[in-house]
Specification:
Helix content: 25-40%
Number of strands: 10
Distance between the termini: 50 Å
Radius of gyration: 21 Å
Largest sheet: 7 strands, mixed
Order of helices and strands: EEHEHEEHEEHEHEHEH
Number of domains: 2
Oligomer: single chain
Shape: globular
Strand content: 15-25%
Number of helices: 7
CATH architecture of the largest domain: 3-Layer(aba) Sandwich
Length: 284
């Protein structure tokens, strides 16, 4: 799919003969699969051409207006993100500082797509080959006008894919379990499951592990756009019975459904920590 974006000079430039000449519009054809991906390109273009106003297709501008209260989805208020480190050992972890949000899930659950849809740019690498993420990737998240990051996203390796299950399971005790059990700044675990796939034993094991570690968990049902409303409601009821203690939120990286609520949950955790709330005690 391709989207046509228009860049319009602002304000109109003065003419040599006096007065102003008409604004000149330039168009850019943007290859993108979804309006959310096009939104990332909108942000990139506005950063490059600060003198220009941008006109986007209705499906993109509608997405912006529908999410204008969320920092990531408004052209005037963007989330700033930066890659910090890729850790395959405890010694590679960045020094503890701000609250951290960990993203976990089976391989090919759409974890990187969720992170990218939250920040409005291609921050985490996506791949059609499950299991490409083999390290814990740390990303700083900062709001414009703030000199320092407010939180860190931690993208953890996927699990449950047959070709890499053994290798990943060997890595967990080395640096993944210590991160989840002992990281003093870990404030929230976002566990992702695909609503198009029946409940998996590996997901149950993950949630049991996080419950034992005492970490707050938010369960995200990804790829919800692939189901009708009736199908999605049935799946949510099934998942609610399967995971009765989990907070469950359906999410679509393509349409943006659930993004507002997920950001709300993340910001509430960070705000609580900023107001002096203690983080869950690390397990040693």
């Amino acid at each position: 799919m391709r989207f046509r974006l228009w860049l319009v000079e602002k304000p109109p430039l003065p003419c040599r003969t006096g007065g102003t000449r008409q604004s000149v519009a330039h168009h850019s054809i943007v290859p993108a699969e979804t309006p959310v991906e096009c939104l990332a390109e909108v942000n990139n273009l506005q950063n490059r051409f600060s003198c220009c106003a941008l006109r986007a297709p209705p499906c993109v501008t509608g997405l912006l207006l529908a999410n204008e209260r969320i920092t990531v989805a408004n052209l005037d208020m963007r989330v700033l993100s930066r890659f910090v480190a890729a850790a395959t050992d405890i010694s590679h972890f960045p020094a503890p500082s701000v609250p951290e949000v960990a993203f976990l899930g089976r391989s090919n659950v759409g974890k990187s797509s969720v992170i990218n849809s939250l920040v409005g740019t291609k921050l985490a690498r996506t791949s059609s080959t499950p299991g490409r993420t083999r390290s814990i990737n740390f990303f700083e998240i900062r709001w414009p006008g703030k000199p320092r990051p407010e939180l860190i996203f931690a993208d953890l390796p996927g699990y449950g894919y047959a070709k890499i299950a053994r290798e990943v399971s060997q890595e967990w005790p080395r640096f993944i379990e210590p991160y989840l059990n002992e990281r003093t700044t870990l404030a929230l675990c976002v566990a992702l499951i695909d609503v198009n796939v029946p409940p998996q034993q590996s997901d149950r094991q993950l949630l049991d592990f996080l419950a034992a570690s005492g970490r707050p968990v938010l369960l995200i049902g990804t790829k919800s756009d692939r189901l009708s409303n009736h199908q999605l409601n049935n799946v949510l009821r099934t998942l609610g019975r399967e995971y009765p203690t989990a907070r469950l939120l359906p999410y679509s990286s393509k349409t943006g459904a659930g993004r507002d609520e997920l950001w709300k949950q993340i910001r509430e955790v960070c705000q609580a920590v900023a107001n002096g709330a203690s983080l869950p005690a690390a397990q040693h």
